[in-house]
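Hallway conversation turned thread

IA: we were arguing at lunch whether anyone had actually written out Ribulose-phosphate 3-epimerase end to end. Turns out nobody had. So, for the record, here is the sequence (218 residues) and right after it the structure tokens. Reply here if something looks off.
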Amino acid sequence: MYHIAPTLLCADLFHMRESMDVLDRLGIDWFHIDVMDGNFVPNFAFGTDFLRQMTAVGKSPFYLHLMVTRPEEYVDLYAEAGVEYYCFHYEAVKNPFRLCQKIRAQGMKPAIALNPAAPIHVLRDLIPYLDAVTLMSVEPGFSGQDFMDFTYRRIGELRAMAKGHKLLIEVDGGIDNEIAKKCIDAGCDVVVGGYFTLFQREKSIADNYEAFQRAVKG
């Protein structure tokens, strides 16, 4: 079963509530929320107050993708904000096992993101502690980048390594409808929908979602 997770970083901020209402009605798997600190990545995104407003109105689960240098410091804060998945970058932590345990203790689902340059095998022993993995198919920090084709191979490697574990694989970055189908065929469960899928400005979100469904089923 495949899913698309809209990244609200690509939504029209002036019409965020309306966009979220439409996406909820379409039956998305989760809202993908990017948090950037200007340090781990050279960009800033979505403060805590804005996130609280989003979780207050959104019906679908919230998948928090933290592109920050000290993700272990914000677990309590985002648990209180109503986040379901707490995704931190492997490259940003020294004690990933401890952080996974802390996340689960706060009632959230631990997830981890892996940059394109990091080998898949570093996650081998972490998989039993995780509910999801986000494979970055671009360098994190900015929308609109080109998809890195070797990601298909990485999806297959991770799927094979996770055999026997209930692990969701999400792919994030540079995905259009054609690429989404290839990612799903390679073994991923969730593709992040951005400028090239759900938020193409010349069509409505609902029309874009329908086009995505047709493409991945074809």
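OS: looked through it. The radius of gyration is 16 Å.
IA: good, adding that to the notes. The chain has a mean pLDDT of 94.
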